[in-house]
Design goal:
single chain, Arc Repressor Mutant, subunit A, three-stranded antiparallel β-sheet, 5 helices, 65% helix
């Protein structure tokens, strides 16, 4: 995802070249093809064909994806631990400086103009 966010969009080959350049052990083209196909099937990437090449593009921005992941993770923690988790969240918020706490309260009300 990071490579595609940086590139905007890219082919399997472009993603592979970027990631293999950083990797200690390069991975095969088919590994990247499988990975991008799975991300597409999960709805995280769009795919279009240009001649014989599939071009992938992220569905969400980095920020939107981080927001979606945070929603899922927080919900999972609350489902698993209930009021204990909420108590920990409340203590964490209470310990923040007043400006940060006020900004978070605005976000909690749905006011994104923080």
């Amino acid at each position: 995802m990071e490579v595609l966010w940086d590139l905007g969009e890219g082919s399997v080959r472009a993603v592979m070249d970027e990631l293999n350049a950083r990797a200690e052990t390069p991975r095969a083209y088919t590994t990247y093809m499988t990975m991008l196909g799975r991300l597409h099937n999960k709805g995280l990437l769009t795919r279009r064909r240009e001649e014989k090449t599939d071009i992938y593009r992220p569905v969400h921005t980095r920020e939107a994806y981080a927001d979606l992941r945070a929603q899922v993770e927080v919900a999972a923690v609350i489902d698993a631990f209930g009021d204990v988790a909420l108590g920990h969240f409340a203590r964490q918020v209470a310990g923040l400086d007043p400006e940060r706490r006020a900004a978070l309260q605005k976000l909690a009300r749905g006011d994104d103009s923080v």
